[in-house]
Amino acid sequence: VQLVESGGAMVQSGGSLRLSCVVSGFTFSRYSMSWYRQAPGKEREVVADINMFGGATHYLDSVKGRFTIFRDNGKSTVYLEMNNLQPEDTALYYCSRTRNFGGPRFDSDPWGQGTQVTVAS
Question: CA-CA 20 to 30 A from 102: which of 49, 52, 62, 84?
């Protein structure tokens, strides 16, 4: 299993970014996926979930209306579109497959390197 995140950058408050996560080592279309983030000194938290078909999504309350998760099963890629970014969104962002929609990840899966999002006020 390999997950490669990209798209992070430093932006000004109110800016936008699109993160991508390309996966390999498993049949992407058979699994739900999640985006996580970890800010310095804080626990890693789930930001968004999407089911295997892309028809169901769930978001952390603080990002609802600003972030959109979507996927392209043909490209084995999951995306996170982030708008109106705020300084509190600053974190290292990761993707992961999950056992079911909104459920836990596979403990045996490695984390990717993540992609850094920094929002300046």
Answer: 84
Q: What's phi and psi for 89, nearest 5 deg?
A: -85, -5
Give the model confidence (pLDDT) of 42-65 as tens digits. 999 999 999 999 999 999 999 999
Residue in 94, 97, 79, 92 with CA at minimum distance from that of residue 24:
97
The residues, any chain, with a CB within 8 Å of residue 40's CB and separated by 6 or more, are: none
Calpha distance 25→17 (Å, rounded): 27
> Is the distance from CB of 88 to CB of 62 less than 8 angstroms?
yes
- Determine the straight-line distance between the first and last CA of the chain, rounded to whole angstroms: 37
